[in-house]
Design a protein that fits this description.
2 copies of one chain form a homodimer.
Chain A (H helix, E strand, L loop, with lengths): L8 H9 L12 E6 L3 H13 L9 E7 L3 H7 L10 E3 L2 H5 L5 E4 L7 H10 L3 E4 L2 H18 L3 E2 L10 H6 L7 E7 L2 H13 L3 H10 L8 H4 L2 H15 L9 E2 L7 H9 L2 E12 L2 E12 L11 E8 L3 E8 L3 H19 L20 E3 L3 E10 L5 H11 L4 E5 L9 E11 H12 L4 E9 L3
Parallel strand pairs in A: 1-2, 1-4, 2-3, 4-5, 5-6, 8-10, 10-13
Antiparallel strand pairs in A: 7-9, 7-11, 9-10, 11-12, 14-16, 14-17, 15-16
Helix pairs in contact in A: 2-13, 5-6, 6-11, 8-9, 14-15
Amino acid sequence: MPKQKSPKQPVKAVAAAHGEPIGDRPKAACRVALIGFGTVGRAVTRILCETVLGENGDGSLRLTHICNRNVERKKQAWVPNNVPSDVIWTDDFHAVLDSDADIVIELIGGLSPAGEIVRGALQAGKSVITANKQLIARHGPELLQLAGAKGVRLEFGASVAGGVPVLPALRTGLCGDRLHGIAGILNGTCNYILSRIESARIPFSEALEEAQARGFAEADASEDLDGGDARAKLAILALAGLQCHVAPESIRARSIRTVEAVDFDYASELGCTIRQISRADLKQDTLFAEVGPSLVPVSSPFGRVQSNQNLVLTSGKYGGDMAFLGAGAGGDPTAVAVISDLKLVAQSLAPGNGRKGGGEGVAAALLSPETSCDFETPWYLRFLVRDRPGIVARLAQILSLHQLNIDAVLQNPGFDKAALPFVITLEPCRDSQLRPALEEMAALDFAIRPCLWLPILR
Amino acid sequence: MPKQKSPKQPVKAVAAAHGEPIGDRPKAACRVALIGFGTVGRAVTRILCETVLGENGDGSLRLTHICNRNVERKKQAWVPNNVPSDVIWTDDFHAVLDSDADIVIELIGGLSPAGEIVRGALQAGKSVITANKQLIARHGPELLQLAGAKGVRLEFGASVAGGVPVLPALRTGLCGDRLHGIAGILNGTCNYILSRIESARIPFSEALEEAQARGFAEADASEDLDGGDARAKLAILALAGLQCHVAPESIRARSIRTVEAVDFDYASELGCTIRQISRADLKQDTLFAEVGPSLVPVSSPFGRVQSNQNLVLTSGKYGGDMAFLGAGAGGDPTAVAVISDLKLVAQSLAPGNGRKGGGEGVAAALLSPETSCDFETPWYLRFLVRDRPGIVARLAQILSLHQLNIDAVLQNPGFDKAALPFVITLEPCRDSQLRPALEEMAALDFAIRPCLWLPILR
């Protein structure tokens, strides 16, 4: 077939209409320093080299520094092809902050020294791109204030859901709506472990060991399993989408450690599976929010999410429900989010654009709502008991005293009577109604441990 | 529960870090004129009144004109609450173009006079927001060039997929990837009609009449049914996501008019349903693109899309596959996209931002690839014949002569022998290999009409 090469004429037109100066390309390259050369940092470097640096670019971006502890060892281990020879490799982030870099990409994660680096860069008049969910969830508003005061930009599109462009969408195409709800599967480790328990019906501990062996879970996976990671992401989504400033610690997180294979058997009988769900609903001045394992219908979008995918659902007053699905982790997808932020910031800094900062708005007004986990839902209660006559009657009595209505009792055969798992589901009630009954039931002599209680999300 | 009102202190910080001037609010309101007071125009007006105009806003936006033919009649029929009393209602779009409006929202659709309005507004130094897919698909690059030359902005986030923020996501969070494929369900009318044929097993003509009666299809629904609407949207997605400048007419469109209830029976036997799918794959210098009814697995994202939803899937070299799902049409969701564009443009025009145009970039370089519909896929061929012995043997002979491999032959009992529908599925082959065989088979004396041929997308 005859191939036809692009006539380049329309190029400038399109670029110009979206902000670049007509006629002349930017004269000086935008200088970019990278701090953190782990999985994401390496992916960012490689993709930048393949797409916008050196021969593959238009000269508008220049990579000036790659900074990491023991950078020489890192450099010896692996360096992408085509890293420009004039990049400065350094252990010393202070040198980067003192340099003439225009933009710092922070990819080391955690609160320290990442916090000092981001603050230092902003103080020094540099724009910052970060994927650091903990830092943004805790200090986002304060850091945005600092960036504003310095007339520079702080972008964090990679901090939630990896490559899934949900934060950019919240800040652009959905900013005309009034969102009131956000829910998502935001943690790949939990999704992997729960999916493995589901498919292989193995114990939680075995699924965790497998995830650790395959690199899907860290040696200390508490942040993932116990919901710390997901609630930081939920706090960022609440900031960007619901204009709510909430501390991640104010969001209740339930661990997935108590979910076992038998729960997937019982969930399946209810047409459900179990996923770690993060959800936030803004009602008047209260943000209902929590993170934790939940029953979701097998046929729902949540039930179908694959191991490393993230799914985010938003609910708006005018636009209704939207869903965003894609690779929620991994070097390359996360690097796409970082590089997208980088391109947009670099464009806003380009000569002729007449201002240093600028761009799309998060919110005209931030709320600081009270947070609550007092959702009203149906519930799944899974007991583990030393079997004897009268157990269900005793539990039913307690539930009845607390005005809680039983929807179903599920008890499969074949279990050891000395440690019998069975399930009671409840009709919708508030979390706060359920808790006193749970405490009372946990104290019963036949209970081997407190029951596992999971919301059922329809 | 005790409610706590927002401390407003963080507000400026967040706004400022994303581009607004520190300290002072914009002094002069951005003046916005609306042309087109149909379903979307009314929704835009109502939502603007509820969220950003008058008492509900911060004074940064002002609605100056509402323009429509016979505007007095429109005004008498329905006006949202709280429309500011100083809005000028007019029939005369020239008066709007001659006014001091900063931004014109064009919502009348079609090529004329919308084209004159958009060109005139840009020429007059006004930024333009439009939902006009036909205009952007045909004249997008030229109009963007004009906007660039005038230093103003042209935004069209509402032109594809209604309220689903796929265009904003392509231009922000995915701009760091190299996308190579886009596919979607982009036309709600087709989706409604095909879903109705599927669920009620009614003839195409009856489903169309029903859709027309319920307002889901226009009296002349050709643009929807025959793919003209969807291919305009696909051309815009190719522009924004694949950096390809293609005329919509160069994209093959197959009509859904030939799909009948029996096809859903046969598709179901293959684990599939039928949807109008728009798809574009960029391979080297060729854009493979088409729009038309296709078999998709019942359990696939496409198979699960509900009647008025749109779904867009993107495939990127680095970020992998992403999915965007939501309300693809309707006044309110489309208005969200228009108002989102409006807010971002107004912000970029705010005093202190130092430039008139500006914002996010579409593409550094536009390709003008050759377009082709020569996809390689498995195929579904549904014949309608006067039954007699030897038909399958004759068809198999022709297919064999063209080197086409039969995958399955499906023939359900119970049909009239004088007009017997049955199906042959083929193993993957190119469109161009299939076409000569189709012509040969259409000429056979037992064929009541040429067979229906649909790609099977896995």
